[in-house]
Amino acid sequence: MNQKDRFRKRVSRRRRELQRKKKLATNIFRWRGDPRDDVAPMHANHLKTCSCWMCGNPRKFFGNLTVQEKIADITEREFEGDDNDNIEIAEFD
To answer: Under 8 Å CB-to-CB from 90, ≥6 apart: which residues?
Structure first.
């Protein structure tokens, strides 16, 4: 398989996946009670229609740190010699 064929295969897969996502988004928006079909394609990649504090990024609304930032803070404190480990890291199952 040459490079053109691989490129065409990737493009066709992306188009197929986008069509699948648009169909799913249309079904979800109809289920939510939004009869407009023009809204679904715009939200096909993320299915998010609002940016309220419940749906948005918790770092933006509450100032929470990511797990990586929490670990970096703990590492920095250990390196400095502080024994204060007051940062809680969420457990993921």
So the answer is: 67
